[in-house]
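Section 3.1: Structural characterization of target chains.
Under the original work plan, the team committed to producing a structural model for every single-chain target entering the pipeline before any wet-lab resources were allocated. The record below documents one such target. The sequence was received from the expression subgroup and is listed exactly as submitted; it comprises 214 residues.
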Amino acid sequence: MEMIVRRSDDFDVTGDGAAAAWTTTDWQILQPTRPNPTACATRAKVLYSATGIYVLVDCEDRTLTCTDLRDHDDLWTEDVVEVFLQSDGALPLYFEYELSPLGRELPLLVSNTGGTFYGWSPWHYEGARLVRKATAVRGGPRRPGATVEGWTAEMFIPFALLRGLPNIPAASGMRWRANLYRIDHDARPATSWAWAVPIQKFHDYEKFGTLLFE
């Protein structure tokens, strides 16, 4: 699985993907990680600039199955989208970013050795190192338990936050390993989607797809 990531000037993150830059690239369809004919559609776009990575995820949905979790809580236990970026596929080290429909975030650096992994929160997460993020909900209010038609998550992950990892900043011709995920908890068990499939767990970094920077 490979995605060509087009270069863009920097732009504002609004949550609804309104920036004209998004029209320059195509949607990537995320597939359910196991058969589920009732699963809502999920799609994503990725761009990059001189200063960071932009990601837009569009999620059909029926209910915002989330509570008032705060930033850095266990967001994956409720509705969420996740981005995994591995700037050097030879190292079992990657960046994970989660964003809920309510705009709560969880940034982590994950070390994964032989399937044993844990996340570390960024130090001095402020200023130019902050992820710029926003969400938008359609067909209903942006609140826990709301009936909706869908929601979007838009984020900008600055290279300044990834400083110290190999191949930072990304440049034309570079290849990173990556995956995009969504988890929806409207039913039990939860439904999940991935850009690069098949996977058994979201942390199967050996099965990540490839980002090719234009």
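Residues 2-213 form a domain with the Immunoglobulin-like fold (CATH 2.60.40.1190).
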